[in-house]
User: Fold this.
Amino acid sequence: MTRPPFPAPEVADIAEVSAQLGRPARDVLGIAARTAGGAPTVVATAPRLSDGTPFPTLYYLSHPLATAAISALEADGLMRELNERLADEPELRAGYQAAHEAYLADRDSIEAVPQLSGISAGGMPSRVKCLHALAAHSLAAGPGVNPIGDLALELAKWSPSDDAPPQRD
Assistant:
């Protein structure tokens, strides 16, 4: 778990994340979460990209096995179920609101971008829109910060502890 400020990523990290994404990684501030073997799992991306574009997604899930596991949950309809739970469970809703505020605080500690004011990621605080962003937040911030991200990670058929050490040249 790494939260702002992030140590600058190593050249090898950027290369590995680029390979994970299948495209050049851009505007990576640091690696916010890694597998037990050290592979990047979540990248922290600048709130304003180098071309000036506001970018709300501070925590971005990059590990292909994690991404696939979360995609499977989305395909199975978990977001609908979690939206129903948000509507029915005041404690879950309050925890999700707190996660939204924590996300904003993390991003604003790097750079406050006026166009992003009050906008976090993944549908927070009122709905579940992207489990990838919510799981990334949970992995970066640690258990107990984002209850929806935590639930997705519990249900995922992937764990950061299952990963083998990264292969480096």
Observations:
- Helices lie at 11-21, 64-75, 78-88, 90-110, 131-141, 147-155.
- The beta strands are 28-34, 40-45, 59-61.
- The first strand starts at residue 28 and ends at 34.
- The first helix runs from residue 11 to 21.
